[in-house]
Amino acid sequence: MTNPKRLYVTLEEAAEIVSLSASTVQELVRKKDFPAPRMLSGRRVGWLLREVEEWAESRPLSDLLPPPNTGAKKPRFSGSKPVSQDDRQGA
């Protein structure tokens, strides 16, 4: 069986598609600068994938280059202490 094309995406997925944070997408929706979500059930909403893609394609071209750190994520702290050379040798 083939996978049908998805029609709706979650807030987090919509934000990832357009390279924005979820809170920025919510702010743009409040300002009516981003497609509004659709009611899928009593307590569930989703964004039409087509509308999110159309919004992204309608953005004006930029004359500015992105800064060098754009898209670079900070490494997550694992919570464990890094192992030093002394620790590995049993000193």
Average per-residue pLDDT, rounded, comes to: 85
Can you tell me the overall shape? Answer: extended
For the termini, the CA-CA separation is 59 Å
Percent of residues in helices = 25-40%
Radius of gyration: 20 Å
Give the strand line-up of the largest sheet: 1-3-2
- Helix count? 4
Organism: Zoogloea dura
Protein name: AlpA family phage regulatory protein
GO molecular function: DNA binding
Pfam families: Phage_AlpA
Q: What do these coordinates show?
A:
With 91 residues, the protein is α+β, with helices and mostly antiparallel strands. It has a domain at 1-60. 34% of the residues lie in helices and 12% in strands. The protein has helices spanning 11-17, 22-30, 49-58, 85-89, and strands spanning 8-9, 38-41, 44-48. Strands 1-3-2 form a 3-stranded antiparallel sheet. A hairpin with a 2-residue loop joins β2 and β3 (44-48). The chain starts with 7 loop residues before the first strand and ends with a helix. The mean pLDDT is 85. One of its GO terms (molecular function) is DNA binding. Residues 58-91 are annotated as: Disordered. It comes from Zoogloea dura.
